[in-house]
Design goal:
By secondary structure, the protein is an alpha/beta fold. It folds into two domains: 145 residues, Four Helix Bundle (Hemerythrin (Met), subunit A) (Up-down Bundle); 152 residues, P-loop containing nucleotide triphosphate hydrolases (Rossmann fold, 3-Layer(aba) Sandwich). Helix content is 56%, strand content 11%. The chain has a six-stranded mixed sheet with strand order 2-3-1-4-5-6, sandwiched between helices. The longest helix is centred in the first third of the chain and has 30 residues. Bound molecules: guanosine-5'-diphosphate (GDP) and magnesium ion.
């Protein structure tokens, strides 16, 4: 979703690029003026134009490639705030843009002044113009590096659809969440016989109608202390999903007892009160049948031990 922001270099890079562009234009243009000092002014104007165009063009491209923050869906806005900092990003973009605009207006002034001046004055003004332009860019160094770090973070943002029915799968590590995602959507997430396999949010789709997100279930209380994946999942549950499927591993081979799993389930139900919870009992193929027992204990929630039946239920809605 945010893959198109170009790499943001240090200000020196754009200075160098601008100077190279100035040189290239100066050597390729035919001068019209006949008088020596006029010819020098004409040449310097061509250079200043090329420099300003190059710097302004690069910065313009960077700034416009960032998403318009105020128009982002709330999920992405909060993710951006958590991972990057919205204000800091806005300030950095404004700084870079401001530097480009200032250079442009300095160039206008410089060109006007040297137009019909003598060689010595042109040389003095030239030193002044580039000196100021360079320091203008170098002063914005922090903004360039902040924007570059933001770009790197943004590239790792998940591509989540924010407008279709979204369901999150929650539960302790190793209970069978990714396996269920794969059974429901046919996608092939990271499944391994050890915990903490999920390093990226795993997302699958049923018939392009339902989006299912595999999340780690055991969130830390404090949002700030959550890791990257937990933050994404937490915000996805909070802002995007309508339903939650909680996976119970009835065999306890995941390493968590049923009562531990129940505790987490109750915590989530309390935390995300507005969501609709269903329960999926995984690993029921291993010979244990606890469906009736779960149904007796959870009158408020639908219980499934068959992924196909769960899928049919989700599609019904
Ligand atoms: N027999 C059986 N094993 C399962 C089932 N679901 C998951 N597993 C196994 O349990 C382990 C953890 O599964 P995984 O889907 O990665 O769990 P996650 O950490 O919750 O995503 C893996 O070894 C799976 O093969 C199931 O329904 N039946
Ligand atoms: Mg998993």
């Amino acid at each position: 979703m945010f893959e198109n922001i170009p790499k943001i270099e240090k200000p020196e890079f754009y200075i160098e690029l601008g100077m190279r562009s100035a040189k290239r234009y100066a050597s390729s243009r035919k001068l019209r003026e006949k008088v020596k000092s006029r010819r020098i002014a004409e040449l310097e104007i061509i250079k200043a134009d090329a420099f300003t165009r190059s710097v302004g063009g690069c910065i313009g491209k960077i700034c416009s490639s960032f998403p318009t923050i105020d128009q982002l869906p709330i999920f992405y806005k909060e993710l951006l705030e958590a991972m990057v900092g919205i204000n800091e990003l806005k300030v950095s973009i404004a700084r870079m843009q401001g530097a480009a605009e200032k250079i442009e207006s300095m160039a206008m002034d410089y060109k006007k002044r040297i137009k019909s001046s003598d060689t010595e004055y042109i040389a003095k003004k030239k030193r002044e113009f580039y000196g100021r332009a360079f320091s203008m860019l170098k002063k914005s160094k922090a903004a360039f590096s902040f924007a570059e770090n933001a770009r790197k973070d943004l590239r790792q943002f998940p591509s989540i659809k924010t407008k279709i029915l979204t369901i999150c799968i929650c539960g302790y590590p190793n209970v069978g969440k990714s396996t269920l995602l794969s059974k429901l959507t046919g996608s092939r997430p990271d499944i391994a016989p050890y915990a903490f396999t999920t390093r990226q949010l795993m997302i699958g789709y049923i018939a392009n109608k339902i989006q299912i997100i595999d999340t780690p279930g055991n969130f830390k209380e404090d949002f700030k202390k959550m890791n990257w994946i937990e933050k994404q999942s937490y915000l996805a549950i909070k802002h995007l999903c309508k339903k939650i499927i909680y996976v119970f591993d009835i065999t306890e081979t995941c390493g968590f007892t049923i009562s531990q799993q129940e505790e987490l389930f109750n915590k989530l139900v309390k935390k995300f009160r507005a969501k609709q919870f269903s329960i999926y009992l995984s690993k029921s193929d291993m010979g244990l049948d606890k469906k009736q027992e779960f149904e007796d204990n959870n009158k408020n929630h639908k219980i499934f031990d068959d992924a196909d039946k769960l899928k049919a239920f989700l599609l019904e809605d």
